[in-house]
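quick q for whoever's on today - can somebody do inverse folding on this one?? i tried earlier but teh output was garbage lol. tokens:
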């Protein structure tokens, strides 16, 4: 990476000012936003230092991530993009504690994942990380509400009803809570998945191609809601996507290529993201 890239990365790592891109649903400024995020002063939602992930060994070893140092700032929406095979999913899986680093460090808040026992890592994943997947991953036999509170049911904790009411209202799910997934549209199912991800007030929500199974209208709605979760609920969101329009909802885009961070774009627009992806080449 050249000096310009380093400069952009530095801007991101110290927290750039959030812009008001045309795609944003709200131009609201988050009260109390600080360079490193408002939710816990001086703490990133998550960050990596020299994160390297090698799959396999010997001749067949694949260096999926090669010394990635990056921050997902608290209370911000960060998109992760790059050509196919660049390491996007690997980065997300390592930061979410679903996969372990070969070397380097991963922090969620102040916790270094490599220092945690399996039990504490499982607990951190359950309590401090939310997931939204392309395939919704809802349990078909449970109602929307039961799906939303499932992480807490599994953990044996009680949901915060006030919080639940506020997120289901923000997500427009108030009158759908007794429905099963098969009785909901794709967009509604993804909103249930988003409510489930937000229900535990996680430190960070990871969204993996969250609009991949949705038509463009439902996709825009879900992206707008992720944006609102950041603006209104102060949630930290990281999203892997191939779609420049989706990336434009984020505050910043981290571009990966061949397992390395090659650029960080703040206040992205779909056109600028598309240009940058074109320059990176490869199949997106
Ligand atoms: N479990 C695994 N075993 C071996 N190699 C793997 C494994 N998972 C990923 N890889 C390799 O690591 C590299 C990065 O993969 P990764 O899935 O992170 O890329 P990606 O950017 O998410 O790609 P895509 O956009 O196609 O989903 C690729 O070369 C991939 O083949």
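ok took a stab at it. sequence:
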């Amino acid at each position: 990476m050249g000096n310009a890239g380093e400069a952009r990365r530095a801007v991101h790592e110290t927290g750039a000012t959030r812009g008001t891109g045309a795609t944003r649903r709200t131009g609201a400024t988050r009260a109390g936003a600080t360079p490193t995020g408002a939710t816990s002063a001086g703490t990133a939602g998550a960050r990596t230092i020299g994160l390297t992930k090698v799959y396999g060994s010997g001749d067949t070893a694949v260096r999926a991530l090669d010394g990635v140092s990056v921050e997902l700032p608290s209370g911000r929406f960060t998109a992760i993009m790059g050509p196919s095979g660049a390491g996007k999913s690997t980065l997300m899986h390592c930061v979410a504690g679903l996969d372990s680093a070969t070397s380097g460090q991963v922090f969620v808040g102040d916790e270094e994942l490599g220092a945690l026992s399996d039990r504490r890592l499982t607990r951190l994943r359950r309590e401090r990380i939310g997931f939204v997947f392309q395939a919704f991953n809802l349990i078909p036999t449970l109602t929307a509400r039961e799906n939303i509170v499932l992480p807490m049911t599994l953990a044996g904790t009680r949901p915060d009803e006030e919080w639940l009411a506020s997120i289901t209202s923000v997500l427009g799910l108030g009158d759908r809570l007794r429905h099963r997934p098969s009785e909901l549209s794709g967009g509604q199912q993804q909103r249930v998945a988003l409510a489930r991800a937000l229900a535990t007030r996680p430190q960070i929500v990871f969204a993996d191609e969250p609009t991949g199974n949705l038509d463009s209208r439902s996709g825009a709605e879900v992206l707008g809601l992720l944006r609102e979760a950041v603006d209104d609920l102060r949630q930290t969101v990281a999203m892997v996507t191939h779609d420049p329009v989706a990336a434009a909802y984020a505050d910043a885009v981290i571009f990966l290529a061949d397992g390395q961070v090659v650029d960080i774009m703040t206040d992205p627009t779909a056109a600028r993201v598309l240009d940058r992806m074109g320059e990176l080449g490869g199949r997106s």
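fwiw The two ends are 20 Å apart (CA to CA). also Residues 3-18+34-280 form a domain with the Rossmann fold fold (CATH 3.40.50.300). so keep that in mind when u check it
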